[in-house]
């Protein structure tokens, strides 16, 4: 049992001064009635006797004052809602975990703007009822955890920290927050588990883990609650209404470059049927609209086609007032159509020439063939150093230095120590293919015949795209913002008599031009030229730009005409820039002056966040925790007003009395 | 405020009763003129006092010739001389006496007049005066016919002679050389104390009577609540919250004050007579004072 104190010590002190103030006012206000007496001689002698306890004697008479003091005291105490706390299984240490993910923006709670506001209010109530012995910390989490306030008994600091907490557009990852809460409750050992000489470095401090969330996160398995006593406070309803756009992208039609196709997926993630219209706008101008009518749990794909040669920023909006407005808007960007420049250094490679000249490839590529002797010339050095080409293909030749651009080596090792042949030339049988990689899309390679090839070992970070019986046959490796692709076998080899032999039948396969097109799209950057990537809120967006730019401006457009914001970011030496402020949903245009150099968009696109129904139980470290109301019980306290009225009446009575006597 | 000042100090009935009384002195004083009292001085009364040897120059008429015939020695026969009595009434006319109804000063004046008249009727030498420099103006009276003069003087006395008892008695002592009965009519409320004043009177070998006049309001004040008490003499202010407890304490102080005064007086052969202003003067003089042996 403990006394519930609603005041801090200094506030108690201040209240203690109230009766003293009243007594002082009583004496200050006291106007004594003058009366003449023959002599004050005897009175003086009487007062002398009483002098030692004169204050008490004065007060003794004033029954009115005493009664008033009593009433004021009782009223003040009543206003403080005195009471004793029943037995509570409190550990004395509280860890508040506040979910600040996108789903907490849902507006399905009565009396509050959104779930986040309600969670803050509940935490605030709990902080108010903390005893002086209780200490608490506050952690907010979305896809990352942030300790807003470490353990403290200071309620004011907790309140300040709580007021700083803001809801984000990010997805949910509760593990980081749990680890932050875990620190003091479950101290780690100094070294490996199982070491008998190892000792626990600190005493465990059990704590109550108060999780204020809607439960919209994955079950946490790699975590042991240990000394944490969990309490999950579910925020939100179990019957929400929510239509969400979970995917939205735009692509240029390769056949007709000026034609743009936009695709969207709309899902009903609420518990009730919903219908709406989906509106596609381009720079605030209506392009197209479509109606969506979905039963609960169903999804539908939408496609729009329109024409534009310029860079576009598209916004798709569901015109419905549901519980989570954030996922009713999606953004997609499209860069203006551009061609990539490819330099091919080769002693002669007809299959490659043919593949680069197919109608599809020719639309997105301008290729230039040079002989290996060109590598020794001044113009090449300048091109390589300036990064003028989007891709350089080295067919059976090696430059002295790697150029400032992406490269594709065919049958030769790039300079440097990173790349190695692991075998000599030998017959090759392909056994593995990474079809998930964009470079290998639509390829069927197992029918290839390869006469001689060498297995490759790439530098750290290298990815095997094509595996053979002798080892990796095609490897993609990063290099300071660029990528190098190495093919372990030649397409054409030089015969002993100086003629040209075919080393493989790939050029005769349909997969060959497709592969070259993939190389152009992915490695040369032609694919980037069509669709702008979409990122999650809060992601760090890394872009490769023209290296000549010292800095670029990033303009955010949230859809509306007024929702435009600009910032400047520097560009690194290798032309890579990182944009960190990506919390807001919308289209982001990267501009150099007035020219749009790149585009990306930030979208929620997270079915887990959009699935609003508050979980009735969450699983933390193999422990299922049922939702509680989180309730610090609150009464409607009209009696405060009554008491205030009483105090006012008392004050009036006192004033009237003092006036009359004075 | 007093309302009875218009009435005569002594009513005719009281005057009639006073004529039958006599001032009693516990001491025998030397008077200045022949009166109706025995004097320590040997004189010419018919009352025998003593014998002494004849010395040359004595009045031969006083020689007891019968003794000479028997003893063949000359003796003078001494007789007691009858003398008048000095009666001093000292009225404290400070502002504090002008309190209550009838005021303490009026009661003091009535008592002074009554006792003075008793003295006048017995051919005593009567001096009724107020304390302080004003007392020098007071007439010395003898004979019943001086009654009006005395009353006239008393009527003219107003309150406001704010001198301390000590200073007043000192002034009186300097001014007066004789001894006799001294009746001090006062409330004894002097912040400097009354003791020195009474000692001074005793030092003058007076037969001292203290008539301690207090009003009922002083004994039991009708005051309650938060008051600012103002001393009418020196305008001294004293803030006090009067509740039952304080009042009780005050009464205890008053009784202690009276008890101390009585004790002080009895230890020095001073007759202490407490007088309440709400008691009629007739009652005081004809009953109270007779019982205390002031008059007979």
UniProtKB/TrEMBL annotation, chain A:
Transmembrane spans: 12-28, 63-80
One Pfam family of this chain: BatA
Residue ranges of domain VWFA in the record: 93-290
UniProt keywords, alphabetically: Membrane, Transmembrane, Transmembrane helix
Domain of life from the UniProt record: Bacteria
InterPro entries the record matches: Aerotolerance_reg_N, VWF_A, vWFA_dom_sf
Keyword Lyase in annotation: no
Protein biosynthesis as UniProt keyword: no
SMART domains to which the protein is assigned, alphabetical: VWA
Full protein name: VWFA domain-containing protein
Source taxonomy: Bacteria, Pseudomonadati, Planctomycetota, Planctomycetia, Pirellulales
Automatic annotation (TrEMBL), chain B:
UniProt protein name: DUF58 domain-containing protein
Domain DUF58: 50-253
Organism of provenance: Novipirellula herctigrandis
Cross-referenced InterPro entries: DUF58, vWFA_dom_sf
Membrane-spanning parts: none
């Amino acid at each position: 049992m403990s006394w519930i104190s609603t005041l801090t010590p200094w506030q108690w002190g201040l209240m203690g001064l109230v009766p003293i103030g009243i007594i002082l006012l009583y004496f200050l206000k006291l106007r004594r009635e003058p009366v003449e007496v023959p002599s004050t001689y005897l009175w003086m002698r009487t007062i002398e006797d009483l002098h030692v306890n004169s204050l008490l004697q004065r007060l003794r008479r004033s029954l009115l004052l005493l009664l008033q003091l009593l009433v004021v005291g009782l009223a003040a105490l009543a206003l403080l809602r005195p009471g004793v706390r029943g037995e509570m299984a409190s550990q004395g240490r509280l860890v508040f975990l506040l979910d600040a993910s996108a789903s907490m923006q849902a507006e399905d709670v009565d009396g509050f703007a959104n779930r986040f506001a309600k969670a803050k209010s509940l935490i605030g109530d709990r902080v108010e009822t903390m005893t002086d012995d209780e200490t608490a910390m506050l952690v907010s989490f979305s896809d990352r955890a942030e300790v807003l306030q470490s353990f403290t008994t200071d309620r004011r600091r907790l309140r300040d920290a709580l007021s700083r907490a803001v809801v984000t557009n990010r997805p949910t990852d509760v593990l980081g927050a749990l680890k932050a809460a875990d620190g003091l409750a479950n101290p780690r050992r100094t070294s490996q588990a199982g070491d008998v000489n190892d000792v626990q470095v600190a005493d465990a401090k059990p704590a109550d883990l108060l999780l204020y969330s809607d439960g919209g996160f994955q079950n946490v398995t790699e975590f042991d609650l240990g000394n944490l006593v969990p309490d999950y406070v579910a925020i939100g309803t179990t019957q929400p209404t929510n239509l969400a756009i979970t995917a939205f992208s735009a692509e240029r039609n390769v056949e007709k470059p000026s034609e743009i196709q936009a695709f969207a997926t709309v899902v009903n993630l609420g518990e009730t049927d919903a219908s709406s219209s989906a509106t596609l706008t381009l720079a605030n101008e209506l392009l197209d609209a479509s109606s969506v009518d979905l039963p609960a749990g169903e999804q539908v794909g939408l496609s729009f086609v329109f024409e534009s040669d310029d860079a576009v920023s598209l916004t798709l909006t569901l015109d419905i007032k549901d519980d989570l407005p954030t996922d009713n808007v999606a953004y997609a960007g499209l860069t203006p159509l551009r061609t990539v420049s490819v330099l091919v250094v080769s002693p002669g490679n007809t299959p490659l020439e043919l593949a680069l000249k197919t109608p599809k490839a020719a639309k997105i590529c301008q290729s230039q063939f040079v002989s290996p002797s060109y590598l020794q010339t001044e113009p090449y050095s300048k091109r390589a150093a300036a990064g003028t080409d989007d891709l350089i293909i080295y067919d059976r030749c090696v430059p002295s230095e790697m150029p400032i651009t992406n490269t594709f080596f065919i049958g030769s090792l790039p300079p440097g120590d990173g790349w190695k042949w692991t075998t000599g030339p030998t017959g090759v049988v392909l056994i593995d293919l990474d079809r998930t990689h964009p470079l290998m899309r639509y390829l069927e390679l197992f029918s290839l015949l390869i006469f001689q090839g060498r297995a490759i070992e790439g530098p750290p970070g290298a990815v095997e795209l094509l595996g053979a019986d002798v080892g990796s046959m095609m490897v993609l490796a990063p290099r300071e913002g660029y990528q190098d692709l190495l093919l372990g076998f030649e397409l054409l080899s030089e015969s002993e008599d100086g003629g040209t032999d075919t080393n493989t039948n790939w050029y005769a396969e349909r997969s060959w031009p497709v592969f070259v097109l993939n190389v152009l799209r992915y490695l040369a950057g032609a694919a980037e030229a069509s669709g702008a990537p979409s990122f999650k809120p809060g992601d760090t967006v890394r872009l490769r730009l023209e290296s000549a730019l010292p800095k670029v401006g990033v303009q955010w457009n949230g859809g509306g005409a007024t929702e435009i914001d600009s910032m400047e970011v520097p560009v690194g030496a290798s032309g890579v820039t990182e944009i960190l402020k990506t919390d807001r949903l919308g289209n982001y245009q990267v501009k150099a002056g007035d020219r749009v150099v790149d585009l990306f968009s930030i979208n929620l696109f997270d079915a887990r966040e959009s699935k609003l129904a508050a979980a009735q139980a969450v699983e933390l470290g193999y422990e299922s925790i049922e939702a509680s109301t989180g309730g610090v019980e609150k009464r409607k306290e009209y009696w405060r007003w009554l008491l205030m009225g009483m105090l006012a009446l008392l004050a009036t009575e006192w004033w009237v009395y003092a006036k009359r006597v004075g | 405020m007093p309302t009875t000042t218009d009435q005569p100090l002594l009513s005719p009935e009281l005057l009639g009763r006073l004529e039958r009384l006599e001032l009693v002195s516990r001491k025998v004083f030397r008077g200045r003129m022949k009166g109706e009292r025995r004097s320590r001085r040997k004189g010419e009364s018919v009352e025998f006092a003593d014998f002494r040897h004849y010395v040359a120059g004595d009045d031969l008429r006083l020689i007891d010739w019968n003794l000479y015939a028997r003893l063949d020695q000359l003796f003078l026969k001494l007789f007691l001389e009858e003398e008048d009595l000095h009666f001093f009434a000292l009225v404290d006319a400070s502002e504090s006496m002008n309190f209550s109804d009838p005021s303490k000063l009026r009661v003091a004046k009535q008592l002074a007049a009554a006792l003075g008249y008793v003295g006048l009727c017995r051919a005593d030498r009567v001096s009724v005066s107020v304390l302080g420099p004003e007392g020098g103006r007071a007439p010395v009276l003898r004979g019943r016919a001086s009654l009006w003069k005395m009353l006239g003087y008393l009527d003219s006395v107003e309150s406001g002679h704010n001198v301390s008892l000590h200073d007043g008695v000192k002034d009186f002592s300097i001014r007066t050389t004789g001894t006799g009965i001294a009746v001090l009519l006062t409330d004894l409320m002097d912040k400097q104390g009354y003791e020195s004043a009474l000692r001074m009177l005793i030092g003058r070998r007076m037969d001292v009577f203290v008539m301690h006049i207090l009003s009922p309001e002083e004994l039991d004040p009708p005051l309650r609540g938060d008051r600012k008490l103002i001393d009418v003499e020196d305008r001294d202010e004293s803030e006090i919250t009067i509740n039952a407890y304080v009042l009780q304490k005050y009464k205890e102080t008053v009784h202690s004050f009276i008890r101390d005064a009585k004790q002080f007086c009895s230890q020095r052969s001073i007759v202490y007579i407490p007088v309440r202003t709400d008691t009629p003067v007739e009652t005081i003089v004809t009953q109270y004072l007779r019982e205390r042996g002031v008059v007979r």
